[in-house]
Automatic annotation (TrEMBL):
Protein name per the record: Uncharacterized protein YaeQ
Domain of life: Bacteria
InterPro entries, per the entry: Restrct_endonuc-II-like, YaeQ, YaeQ_sf
Family annotation (SMART domains): YaeQ
Chain ranges passing through the membrane: none
Source species: Variovorax soli
Length: 186
């Protein structure tokens, strides 16, 4: 019998000072049985860091949501679609292979990868030369200590505040807080 996803609910208050974006997002995260709390929280961080694009790219008339991710390789971990259904932003987390990343670059206006885990540097050295062509691709490294600290914030029901200032995301639940400063690799 197949294992079912675990459902997490999050209310995410985003205050993106860098982009002048302030909004509350009611989110449902389905954590795949093979997904860790750390990876799930990186998906949430990716959404928070790019939430402003809902206004900047789609003028508020779009959908920013979690994709099927691990359950369906043809969907991203997070995506932004405009009112026509066009994919404006495709986000992957982890260390994806080059072919799905290049394919995503062809499906979306912008593609972003958020690499995390202690093996991210090894992954990047092996794939960097294969990802030089796509001009609409950005790759970021989330520091290992920060990504591991995020797992402690994972609860079945979460009330989170995300403040983005000078490129740093401060994510907290009122008791604990994690500062994340993604390093841009590409």
């Amino acid at each position: 019998m197949a294992l079912k996803s675990t459902i997490f609910k999050a209310t995410l208050a985003v205050a993106d000072i860098d982009h002048g974006y302030y909004a509350d997002h009611a989110l449902t995260l389905a954590r795949h049985p093979s997904e860790t709390d750390e990876r799930m929280m990186i998906r949430l961080v990716a959404l928070a860091l790019n939430a402003y694009k809902l206004q900047d790219v789609c003028q508020g008339d779009g959908t920013l949501a979690f994709g099927a991710g691990l359950s369906n390789p043809d969907e991203p971990d997070v995506w932004l679609r405009d009112f026509t259904g066009a994919v404006r932003l495709w986000i992957e987390v982890g260390q994806p292979e080059e072919k799905p990343v290049i394919k995503a670059c062809g499906k979306a206006d912008e593609t972003i990868v958020y690499a995390f885990h202690h093996a991210a540097e090894v992954w990047w050295r092996g794939i960097e030369n294969k990802l030089t062509r796509p001009q609409n691709l950005a790759v970021y490294r989330v520091p290992t200590a920060a990504s591991q600290a995020l797992a402690a914030l994972a609860q079945r029901s979460m009330q989170l505040q995300a403040t983005i200032q000078e490129g740093t995301l401060m994510l907290g639940d009122g008791t604990h807080s994690v500062d994340i400063e993604p390093l841009r690799w590409k």
